[in-house]
Amino acid sequence: MLGQLIDLFEEQFVLDPLWLIGAIIGGLIFVVIWILIVQYIYKDAVKKDLNAEIWLLIILVSPIISWIVYFIVRNYKKK
Question: Which structural domain, as residue segments, surrounds residue 16?
Answer without folding.
Answer: 2-78
